[in-house]
Write a structure and sequence with these properties.
By secondary structure, the chain is of the alpha+beta class. Helices cover 40% and strands 21% of the residues.
Length: 351
């Protein structure tokens, strides 16, 4: 995956990005020395040592000209366009990355996986991002959504802010957001909290309050839901601008798919949480490479299923591996057999 070097600074940066992606996948690590050990030495006549490649990667991560707008967002925009014939289900969530940093990310749910679309990284060990940052990330997302696409945003209780809901409504998108049991509602002049209805809900029940006003700011109307799934120990509380409670709950089940992306980036994949980087800007640039690596591996996983190669590298009668794990296995198969390796960053146009 080491391309012929194009002319100019942009070409050099693209070559370095290609090296990072191949090294991240090959090493299953976000540690620069480990990445460098899995990257080809360079074109003939320009062989480099791993230490030199580490320095090259470090320069790339420090380079302020390396921005997601140039090196990642065009891929994300193309991905959204290719899948916009079906509802674009997006999940917003945060996670720890590097040393003492967190990322706030919006991902697209695709075939049981979360594919990253936009993110920001900040210096913090834990806790929630302020709603101002949620809004900034949503504004960045707006620029990527194809015209006329149906969008559904999902989020947990960190993202139930009134201003965020208002922004999603202005975009003419739909949302289903978890909220606190202590959140206040006003229905036909009667004020109460979500936990006031909990005593009237049993496992398997779905209690709905249509046309409610949410919080002391009385935002709305919203559809307020208390949903006690049979597989949960207690009910969860949701607010949505959808008209049907069952539909809203059906979509909210997909929220947990973003955890698949974080596991791909961490324990089951590239171990981004173990990166030694502590600077948010450098971590964000490293994530350009890890997120493109995730796109590539999920593409290979989808390619495996479409081509029937899953029966070659896995069981013939059933498949219980994720697209990400299938992609990694297929890459190993191609390398072991000396076969050409397909490189793309966009899965097939399917629902």
């Amino acid at each position: 995956m080491f391309p012929v070097e194009p002319i100019g600074h942009l070409g050099s940066r693209l070559n370095t990005l290609a090296g990072l992606i191949s090294g991240i996948v090959g090493s299953k690590s976000s540690n620069l020395p480990a990445i460098a050990n899995k990257v080809p030495g360079g074109p003939r006549g320009r062989r480099t040592k791993p230490d030199s490649r580490v320095k090259r990667f470090e320069r790339w991560l420090r380079n302020e000209a390396v921005e997601s707008e140039t090196f990642f967002l065009p891929f994300a925009k193309a991905l959204l366009l290719s899948l916009s014939h079906v509802p674009l289900v997006l999940v917003i969530d945060g996670s720890v990355v590097g040393r003492g940093c967190m990322t706030l990310m919006i991902s697209l749910v695709y075939k049981q996986r979360g594919l990253p679309i936009v993110w920001t990284v900040a210096k913090r060990r834990k806790g929630h991002f302020p709603e101002r940052i949620h809004i900034e990330l949503m504004n960045k997302l707006q620029e990527l959504i194809p015209e006329g696409a149906r969008v559904v945003l999902l989020g947990d209780g960190e993202f139930d802010g009134v201003d965020l809901q208002a922004l999603v409504n202005r975009c003419k998108w739909e949302y289903v957001l978890r909220t606190s049991k202590s959140a206040r509602l006003n229905w036909q002049g009667e004020e109460f909290r979500f936990d006031d209805v909990t005593a009237h809900v049993n496992p398997g029940d779905l209690f709905e309050v249509p046309n409610a006003l949410f919080t002391q700011r009385e935002y709305g109307p919203v559809l307020a839901l208390t949903w006690w799934r049979n597989d949960c120990k207690e009910p969860i509380h949701l607010v949505t601008n959808m008209g049907a409670a069952e539909q809203a709950c059906g979509y909210y089940r997909k929220r947990f798919k973003i955890e698949t992306f974080f596991s791909d980036q961490k324990s089951r994949g590239f171990h981004l949480h173990k990166s030694h980087l502590s600077d948010p800007n450098r971590l964000s640039r490293l994530m350009i490479a890890t997120c493109l690596a995730a796109y590539w591996i999920v593409y290979l996983g989808a390619y495996t299923m479409e081509s029937g190669l899953n029966k070659v590298i896995h069981r013939t009668h059933r498949c219980d591996l994720s697209l990400f794990q299938l992609g990694l296995r297929l890459l190993d198969h191609f390398l072991n057999e000396g076969l050409p390796i397909p490189v793309a960053f966009m899965p097939a146009r399917t629902g």
